[in-house]
């Protein structure tokens, strides 16, 4: 499911130059009725705008996904999209742990 969603987003974002949407994880409920899709969006300053557009076109994305997995799944799950901010969180923790590393790089 993650691979197919990634391909759908790759095809859609190819039309919008300078935007990259990747699917970092998909968590599906045990009964396969709900899928939580975590997206990494670049550039980050447009993430909320793009997430709103993705949520608005959730039905089309779900239809495209159901066409791709129709022989593997009986029912396509409801999709909910979230921004994966784990990279931002890692950078924040890294900057807190190594504040002198940033200054040392600037001095060079």
In short:
This protein is of the alpha+beta class and 108 residues long.
Question: Could you characterize what this model shows?
Answer:
The structure is a single chain. This protein has 108 residues and is of the alpha+beta class. It has one domain (2-107): K homology (KH) domain (GMP Synthetase, Chain A, domain 3, 2-Layer Sandwich), CATH 3.30.300.20. The chain is built from five helices and three strands, in the order H-E-E-H-H-E-H-H. The protein has helices at 2-13, 47-56, 58-68, 86-97, 99-107, and strands at residues 20-28, 34-42, 78-83. The longest helix has 12 residues, at 2-13. The chain is globular and about 55 Å long.
Indicate the topology.
Elements lengths: L1 H12 L6 E9 L5 E9 L4 H10 L1 H11 L9 E6 L2 H12 L1 H9 L1
Parallel strand pairs: 2-3
Antiparallel strand pairs: 1-2
Biggest β-sheet strands, sense, barrel:
3 strands, mixed
Share of residues in helices? 40-55%
Beta-strand content: 15-25%
Number of separate helices: 5
**CATH homologous superfamily?**
K homology (KH) domain
Overall number of strands: 3
Strand order of the largest sheet: 1-2-3
Distance between the termini: 46 Å
Low-confidence sequence ranges:
none
CATH uppermost class: Alpha Beta
User: What is the H/E order?
Assistant: HEEHHEHH
CATH architecture: 2-Layer Sandwich
CATH topology: GMP Synthetase, Chain A, domain 3
* Broad shape: globular
Query: Which structural class do you get from the secondary structure elements?
Result: alpha+beta
Q: Rg to the nearest angstrom?
A: 17 Å
- Average pLDDT rating: 85
Q: Number of domains in the coordinates?
A: 1
